User: Fold these one by one.
Assistant:
Number 1:
Amino acid sequence: STMFLVGLSGGIASGKSTVVAVLRELGCAVIDADVIARQVVQPHSKAHQQILQHFGTEILLENGEINREALGNIIFSQPEKRRLLNSITHPEIMKEMLKQVLKYFVLGYHYVILDIPLLFETRGLTKFMKYTVLVYCDPPTQLARLMRRNGLGVAEAEARISSQLPLDEKRKWATHVIDNCGDRESTRRQVLRLHAHLEDSLHFLWARLAVGTAVAGLGGLVFLLIRHFIS
């Protein structure tokens, strides 16, 4: 059997977790990059040791875990520190994601949804996705939701939003957009349509793979990872 990957992303407070909840309910395999990002920096991990080496012990909590807020403040203001942190954590995140993709492949799933907050910022990943899905809401709605959810003032909420690529920009890259400006029911209907489309896609699974013209999706991802991270 063969398999494809679907990239899912959104913006801060655009309502991605609502969409993920419906997809999981429908029985989809969803891999959450944020959860993995937290796992790979747990104490005693390779990334944890490297982060300590470069950022010092003042970014630790009492229990030895990394204080994400303290680290976040450092990298928010210093791009070169952010690049350093990414170079430590990204290979570990990718390895763990690949492991989970392979697990679902072995379990017989035909596609896996990768929930990656910075999917459209890290353009390199999108080429492994058969589809990319953006959970969208218009800027005023996004701002209002973020202020309400995190109890932020306008300036603070705007600063957080502007640290990300604008949703209207990401929209151009996505193969599917779920507009989450309306009520939950409208969002749910759109997710059901997306799910039906993914299930339908199985019937046309990569004829070109059979012809051997391209190593796409999973094969490409495996190749990339082996080349980069296992060498």
Number 2:
Amino acid sequence: VHSNVSQGCQGGCATCSDYNGCLSCKPRLFFVLERIGMKQIGVCLSSCPSGYYGTRYPDINKCAKCKADCDTCFTKNFCTKCKSGFYLYSGKCLEKCPDGLEANNHTMECTSIVHCEASEWSPWSPCTKKGKTCGFKRGNEVRVREIVQHPSAKGNPCPATSESRKCIVQRKRCQKEGKGKRNREEKRKKSNKDESKETRQESKGRAARRQNREQRENNSKTQPKKRKAPNKEQNLAPVDTAH
């Protein structure tokens, strides 16, 4: 062991020196060189920093730098996040996405183009004119549909979600609002009157039945009880049959 190599190191180093820092790491730690000014210092970390990927060897685990356009990577040839100005596609960082794909500025990835999708048309509405369904012969009817998939930036735009067309119906007179309201009020009063009449009749019937029952009870209390007629056979004198 060289005179400037120490065995009693700190920070995960297995061996170290005062000038170069860590020379080797403890098991499962990664060795990486950090630049401080003009000098590189060896450090031992549990995981590789941003811009590096880890490789494990029997004698040492090392952190190697990703490509210049890659912010984080799994291996040297497979990037997982690109630096600003580049878009990720299949592990590579590109300035422009391939044909058939579009750049997503939110995720900084190349994604598939999504076109707009709409549902089927609804049935045509009743023929109306100025919000009414009566008092006219020619009006309009409409139908609608919903957007079920909104498009991406380069996708086909969405179509119209409503359609209108002319319609012809048989003219019918509109019932005046005041007259209709008056008829409904009269029907309601008549119904209430009939219900009140039936209620009064039922009350009178119950009262009459109660009065008859009370009258029968009073008559049964005041009427004297009839005496039973004597048995004629008991009043006859015994006949002497001796003579």
Number 3:
Amino acid sequence: QFLMANKLDTAMWISRLFTVYCSALFVLPLLGLHEAASFYQRALLANALTSALRLHQRLPHFQLSRAFLAQALLEDSCHYLLYSLIFVNSYPVTMSIFPVLLFSLLHAATYTMKVLDARSSNSLPFLRSLLEKLNANQQNILKFIACNEIFLMPATVFMLFSGQGSLLQPFIYYRFLTLRYSSRRNPYCRTLFTELRIVVEHLIMKPSCPVFVRRLCLSSISFISRLAPTVA
């Protein structure tokens, strides 16, 4: 009754569980490397479906207008719909599947707990314990996802020069990264950029750091800072 009363949430729960399943079979290619590549695409397509359903839930009345598009781009679900479309037809990159896998795992765990509560307050204690441990580490997981989002930017550039990526991919991914940086719901990308900057500045200001390395890092920090969007 709980599942039928929340059909859209249930559909997203199922698609997230399928995303976790496909992502796991890509990361751990138990069925062979050829099959792993197909699971990579399936995971991203399932994530695109979840993101589209979530975006529909957040903005139910579609309008073909600039205002609606601007509002949609503020939603995290729109960001990850774009993310899935960026990588779904690209060369499989393990690094790119982790945000999809971990976000799906976190959201699926939250809804699974609701399903267990609807069934009985004491049902499946072992599973409840695992879900509670996962939720307890949510902040660390979100920081890890943000790290992946940031370091995928240079990875897309490397893929371009190695012949495994398209010319447009780094530019589209840069747009995705600016959306994540400006996210209202998830500040971890901004936080990680700040923390990485502090760490790098601390290291390069040590007397043992060569001058040319210090200058290179400072100019890189300045360049990246100019690229960062303004956050309201």
